[in-house]
C-alpha cells in the first residue's frame, strides 16, 4: 500500500490537514477506544506532525515531540491508524518514519514513548524496550518504552 507522507510543523498545517488529524484522533481515541479525555493538550503547537495519506484521506498519523516538551527525551505520540488500514503494515511504516523523522528533526538520541500495552510487541520489534511499570492512562493500560541511542 502506497502512502503520501507529509511532515509539517503545526504552524504550516493547512486547515484541512489539521481537521483530518483531529478527526482521526477523535475517531480512534475517543469513539473506538471509548476514552474521554482532552485530546487538544496544548502540545501540538510545539510538535511536527507526520501524516500518511492515501489519496486525500488521512490513514495514519503521529505527533513528533521535541525533547523537553513532554519527556526529557524526544518522543512520538498520538500514534494512530485508521481502521481501514489496520493489518496492512501501515502502523509499522508510520513508526519507522516517525523514528527517522524524529532523528532528522531533533538529532540523535533516545526516543521515549507511552505505548498502549496491547501493541507493545510492535514497538519492541522496532527496537523499543520497556521501562518502568505499566500504568493506567485514561482507562487504557500503557507502558513507557525507549529506543537505544
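-> sequence recovered:
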Amino acid at each position: 500500500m502506497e502512502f503520501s507522507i507529509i511532515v509539517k510543523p503545526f504552524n504550516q498545517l493547512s486547515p484541512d490537514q489539521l481537521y483530518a488529524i483531529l478527526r482521526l484522533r477523535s475517531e480512534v481515541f475517543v469513539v473506538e477506544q471509548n476514552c474521554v479525555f482532552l485530546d487538544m493538550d496544548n502540545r501540538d503547537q510545539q510538535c511536527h506532525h507526520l501524516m500518511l495519506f492515501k489519496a486525500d484521506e488521512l490513514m495514519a498519523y503521529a505527533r513528533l515531540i521535541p525533547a523537553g516538551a513532554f519527556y526529557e527525551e524526544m518522543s512520538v505520540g498520538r500514534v494512530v491508524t485508521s481502521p481501514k488500514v489496520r493489518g496492512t503494515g501501515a502502523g509499522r511504516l508510520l513508526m519507522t518514519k516517525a523514528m527517522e523523522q524524529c532523528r532528522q528533526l531533533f538529532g540523535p538520541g533516545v526516543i521515549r514513548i507511552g505505548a498502549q500495552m496491547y501493541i507493545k510487541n510492535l514497538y519492541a520489534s522496532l527496537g523499543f524496550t520497556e521501562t518502568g511499570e505499566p500504568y493506567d492512562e485514561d482507562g487504557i493500560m500503557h507502558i513507557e518504552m525507549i529506543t537505544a541511542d
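The beta strands are 4-9, 48-54, 57-65, 74-81, 111-116, 129-137, 140-146.
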